[in-house]
Amino acid sequence: MPSALDERIVPVILSGGSGTRLWPLSRETYPKQFWPLVSELTMLQETAARAIGPDFAPPVVICNEGSRFMVAEQLRALHSGTGAAEGPLGARVVLEPQPRNSAPAIAAAALLVHEENPGQVLWLLAADHVVTDLPALHAALGRAAAAARRGKIVTFGMSPTSPETGYGYIETGPELKEAPGVHRVARFVEKPDAATARTFVEGHRHLWNSGMFVATAATLIAELERYEPELLAAVRTAVQAARRDLDFIRLGEAFLAAPSVSIDYAVMEKTEAAAVVPASIGWSDLGSWAALWEVAPKDAAANATQGPVELLDAKRCLVRSEGILTAVVGLEDAVLVVTDDAVLAMHRDRAQDVKKVVDRLKAKGVKQATEHRRMYRPWGHYEGLIMGDRFQVKKIQVRPGQKLSLQKHFHRAEHWVVVNGTAIVQRDAESILLRENESVYLPLGCVHRMENPGMIPLTLIEVQAGSYLGEDDIVRFEDTYGRT
C-alpha cells in the first residue's frame, strides 16, 4: 500500500516571470506575483494558499536569485496567517542560476521529488494566476490526479468566456475510459486571430490553455528523456550538484546548459500522454491591465479602483494609485495606474501594448522600466526619497531580528536617524544603541552594521553624502545572508 506521503500532491510553483504587461506596478525587480492584485494576499500567496491541507505536501517553488528572500518571506507570512501545522513554511525554494523557461524548471522539480518518491503527483502552476472557484479547482485537480497516476500528463483547459486571442487553445478529443472527466488532447493551437477564436468558442471543442499541468515525477522524467534528453541531462547534473544555501536549494551551474524552452514545446505538443481536464474555475492569467479589470470588483459604472482614487462621470475604467491622490473625470474604458515614480494612462483596448512601452524605456536606459524606488533585501527594504548632487536620502526599514551586513564604503559617508523602533549600530569598535529620534554619523571608510533587536520594524532615514552614491560602493566583511 502507498504511504500517506505517496498520496499527497506536490504543488510546484513557478515564480520566475517578470510580468511587464502590468507595468508600472510590476517590474523585473518586483514582478506581479509579489503584489496583492485581487485580495490582501499577494499572487504568490494566493497560489500557495490553494494547496494547503491534508491532500498536499509542502510546495516546491522555483525562482531566481534576486527574488529568493521575497518568496521566503511571503510564504512565511502566509503560513503564520493560516495557522497550518504544515504548509508553505515547509516549502523547498529552488534557485535557478538563470531563468531557462518552464521545461528546465519543471525538470528540476521532478528530479528532486523523484529522489524520494517516483510515483508522487506534481501539480505544476504559475505563481501569478487567478482562480476564483476553489472547490471547482480542487474537483478538477482530483480528476487530473487520477489520470496522472495512470501515466498521463494532464493540463487544465479553461472553458472560454470570450474569443480571446491572447491565449493558446486545446482541442479536446474523446473522454478517457479509465479517467472520467478527462479527455485526450486532439491538438494544441497557437494564439489564434479573432475570427478563428470566435470559431473555437462557437464550436465548443476548444479550451483555453491555462498552463497548469498534473503528472507524476516518473512520467515527467520519462517524457523529458524521450523528447529532450539533453535538457534532462543538464538539469540532472545541476540537481546532483545542488547545495544548500540558508533555506534555499541552489542548483548547479550545469543548469545553464539546458535549452530555454517551455514545457509545452518540449513535451506537451509531442507526447502521446497528453490529456486535458475541462474546467470552469474563474481562471485568469492576469496578463494585462484589461484582464485585471475583468476580474476586479466594480462600482455601478463598472469602474474598478484601488487606492486613493476619486471618480467623476467615469465609466468602465481601471484606476489604481499606490499613494498619490488620483482624480479621473469623464473618461471611459481607460486604465490609469499611478506609482510613486511612474504613471501609465491608456485605453483599455491597448492593454497588450504596455510591453512595447517597457521595451522602449529599456532601450533608452530608463531605470523605472525595471526597478522600483522601493528595493527589497533579505533584511527588509529601502526606498529612495530624494536624489541630488553628491547626496541622496533614503527610508530604510529593517524587520525584527534582522541585520545588515558588516560593511564599509569608499566614496560616501552616512547619517542614520531612527524614526521608529530601536537599532544597535556597530561603528568600528563601538556598539551604539539608538532609539526613536536619535542618530549616528558614519564617516567615510568606517566599518559599520545595523541590527534591529526589537519586536517591531525599525524605520530610519539615511542621508548619504559623497562623490559616488551607487549601490556597488560597498565592501562586505560579514553577511548573515551569504552575500558577497
From TrEMBL:
Domain Nucleotidyl transferase intervals: 11-300
Species per Swiss-Prot/TrEMBL record: Roseomonas acroporae
SUPFAM superfamilies from the UniProt entry: Nucleotide-diphospho-sugar transferases, RmlC-like cupins
EC number: 2.7.7.13
Catalytic activity: alpha-D-mannose 1-phosphate + GTP + H(+) = GDP-alpha-D-mannose + diphosphate
GO MF, one example: GTP binding
NCBIfam families per record: GMP_PMI
Superkingdom of source: Bacteria
Keywords of the record: GTP-binding, Isomerase, Nucleotide-binding, Nucleotidyltransferase, Transferase
GO biological process: GDP-mannose biosynthetic process; polysaccharide biosynthetic process
Family as reported in the entry's similarity comment: Belongs to the mannose-6-phosphate isomerase type 2 family.
InterPro entries reported for this sequence: GMPP_N, Man1P_GuaTrfase/Man6P_Isoase, Man6P_isomerase-2_C, ManC/GMP-like_b-helix, Mannose-6P_isomerase_type2, NTP_transferase_dom, Nucleotide-diphossugar_trans, RmlC-like_jellyroll
All residue ranges annotated as the Mannose-6-phosphate isomerase type II C-terminal domain in the record: 367-479
UniProt entry tagged with the keyword Transferase: yes
Pfam hit, one: MannoseP_isomer
MannoseP isomerase/GMP-like beta-helix domain sequence ranges: 312-361
CDD domains tied to this protein: cupin_PMI_typeII_C, GDP-M1P_Guanylyltransferase
Protein name: mannose-1-phosphate guanylyltransferase
